[in-house]
């Protein structure tokens, strides 16, 4: 059970902490701070009425404190696995904020801080070392005024609407994060080595493409599910592409699948496929929560060719109504592109008979408590959007809504966390949703790239971040089963 240490509004006004790129007026605003709770939950570091401060790495690790690897049906290895913390090390903002004025710096650290900030900005713009700075002669360059296109104009309007929400909502969480020692200086890990990124998971999408040629073994509900059994060779026969695979043990498992080693969380299930092979998922069960993280189309993805994207219109093919239990809570991650946001609200959710309830914001910060991008950056924003809705289609949903009142979902909640440096490795919503769903709720993630304990996951890269090479492994004493 989580324990809370509630602090009063008055006590919060006295907290002193480093700046996280607020102006002086914003930082010392007279707006009352919400009451905050310190949570013993390893995923939710802090919470208040505005949202949560999350630690995604801790959430992953709590599933792998006890992990089994079977050598034979009679012998097993006891392991403790931890996701490599380096994947959650973002020590400095990706873009240096140039909005910090001299008066801001003086208030935060005196004249020396002003000089340091000026040197950083100059060094960043000129790309030279500190030793060369005195000889630099700056030249004024005229900037051509460029009118905003429709997409940029729409984004600016949306940003002005949520800017105050982000500033006021994240202020208390970040201040208390400094107070309890959660954040640390970027100097603490200077010179740390980067971690190479495994490539084994990149073959999953190709395997799914090849699996399109495989016939369905059956569409019978009972035989479209398989369980990871015990024993050294228990996974060789598994059909990952046309059957839902379960780990029904209360501990995690290290298994070999398709010649690679993967970690499976306790009580999880998954289907490795694309949209052409979703029938086993439809045969499996109905869900009370469905989270989608679609590979949205955008220009940078097209240029870099980093991963395949899905045109927005194709999302209508996802059988959300067929997967939804009455009153299912549907949550979709979306980029800041307003075209995609309008598509969800005006086309996609109505097509699925999902009523829009709220929009939440994921605010991305560094390990030192700064936004990963300046909040007012015209190009990159330090936040993404989640659109929450309720499935209202079918007779069962109508009956349920009349018999049972759903827990209301508030608007404009914030999820604040250090993002993973791995592409599309979103923070889990499992702990923050506990306040709004039944404890026995069945949960599904679509377009997943990792597994979660107690959840079902689907996607053509669903095992990607479960590959053993993303983890540090510690072996404990072997245990002989009796």
Q: How are the elements arranged and paired?
A:
Layout lengths: L8 H4 L11 H4 L8 E3 L5 E5 L2 E4 L1 H6 L5 E6 L2 E9 L18 H8 L1 H16 L23 H30 L24 H8 L13 E3 L16 E4 L4 E6 L2 E5 L3 E5 L6 H6 L2 E6 L6 H6 L15 H4 E11 L3 H14 L2 E11 L18 E9 L2 H10 L10 E4 L25 E4 L8 E5 L11 E5 L3 E2 L2
Parallel strand pairs: 3-15, 4-8, 6-7, 10-17, 11-12, 11-16, 13-15, 16-17
Antiparallel strand pairs: 1-2, 2-3, 4-5, 5-18, 5-19, 7-10, 8-9, 12-14, 13-14
Helix pairs in contact: 4-5
Describe what this molecule looks like in 3D.
With 482 residues, the protein is an alpha/beta fold. The chain has a domain at 154-184 and 202-216 and 223-396 and 407-470: 3-Layer(aba) Sandwich (Rossmann fold). Helix content is 24%, strand content 22%. The protein is built from twelve helices and 19 strands. The strands form two sheets. Strands 1-2-3-15-13-14-12-11-16-17-10-7-6 form a 13-stranded mixed beta sheet. Strands 4, 5, 8, 9, 18 and 19 form a six-stranded mixed beta sheet that branches. β8 and β9 (260-264) form a beta hairpin. α4 (102-109) packs across α5. It is globular and about 65 Å long. The two termini are 33 Å apart. Mean pLDDT is 78; it is low at 1-33 and 99-137.
């Amino acid at each position: 059970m989580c324990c809370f240490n509630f602090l009063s509004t008055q006590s919060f006004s006295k907290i002193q902490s480093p700046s996280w790129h607020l102006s002086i007026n914003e930082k010392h605003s007279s707006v009352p701070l919400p009451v905050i709770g310190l949570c013993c939950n390893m995923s939710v570091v802090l919470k208040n009425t505005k949202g949560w401060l999350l630690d995604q790495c801790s959430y992953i690790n709590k599933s792998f404190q006890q992990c089994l690897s079977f050598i034979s049906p009679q012998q097993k290895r006891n392991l403790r696995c931890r996701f490599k913390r380096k994947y959650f090390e973002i020590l400095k903002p990706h873009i240096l904020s140039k909005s910090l004025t001299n008066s801001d710096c003086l208030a935060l650290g005196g004249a020396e801080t002003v000089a340091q900030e000026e040197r950083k900005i100059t060094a960043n713009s000129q790309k030279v070392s500190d030793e060369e700075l005195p000889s630099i002669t700056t030249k004024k360059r005229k900037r051509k005024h460029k009118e905003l296109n429709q997409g940029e104009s729409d984004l600016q309007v949306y940003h002005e609407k949520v800017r105050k929400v982000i500033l006021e909502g994240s202020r208390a969480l970040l201040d208390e994060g400094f107070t309890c020692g959660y954040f640390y200086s970027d100097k603490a890990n200077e010179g740390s080595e980067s971690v190479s990124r495994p490539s084994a998971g990149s073959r999953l999408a190709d395997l799914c493409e090849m699996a399109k040629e495989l016939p369905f073994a059956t569409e019978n509900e009972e035989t479209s599910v398989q369980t990871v059994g015990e024993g050294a060779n228990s996974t060789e026969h598994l059909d990952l592409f046309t059957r839902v695979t379960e780990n029904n043990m209360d501990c995690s498992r290290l298994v070999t699948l398709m010649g690679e080693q993967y970690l499976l969380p306790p009580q999880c299930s998954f289907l490795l496929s694309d949209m052409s092979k979703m029938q086993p998922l439809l045969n499996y069960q109905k869900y009370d929560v469905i989270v989608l993280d679609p590979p949205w189309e955008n220009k940078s993805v097209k240029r870099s060719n980093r991963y395949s994207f899905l045109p927005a219109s194709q999302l209508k093919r996802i059988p959300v109504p067929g997967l939804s239990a009455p009153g299912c809570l549907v949550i979709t991650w979306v980029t800041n592109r307003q075209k995609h946001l309008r598509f969800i609200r005006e086309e996609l959710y109505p097509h699925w008979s999902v009523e829009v309830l709220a929009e939440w914001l994921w605010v991305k910060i560094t390990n030192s408590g700064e936004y990963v991008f300046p909040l007012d950056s015209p190009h990159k924003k330090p936040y993404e959007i989640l659109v929450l809705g309720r499935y209202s289609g079918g007779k069962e949903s109508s009956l349920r809504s009349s018999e049972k009142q759903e827990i209301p979902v508030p608007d404009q909640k914030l999820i604040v966390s250090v993002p993973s440096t791995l592409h599309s490795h979103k923070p889990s919503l499992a702990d923050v949703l506990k306040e709004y769903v039944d404890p026995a709720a069945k949960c599904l993630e679509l377009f997943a790239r990792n597994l979660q304990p107690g959840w079902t996951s689907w996607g053509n890269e669903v095992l990607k971040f479960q590959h053993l090479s993303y983890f540090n492994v510690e072996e404990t004493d072997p245990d002989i089963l009796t």
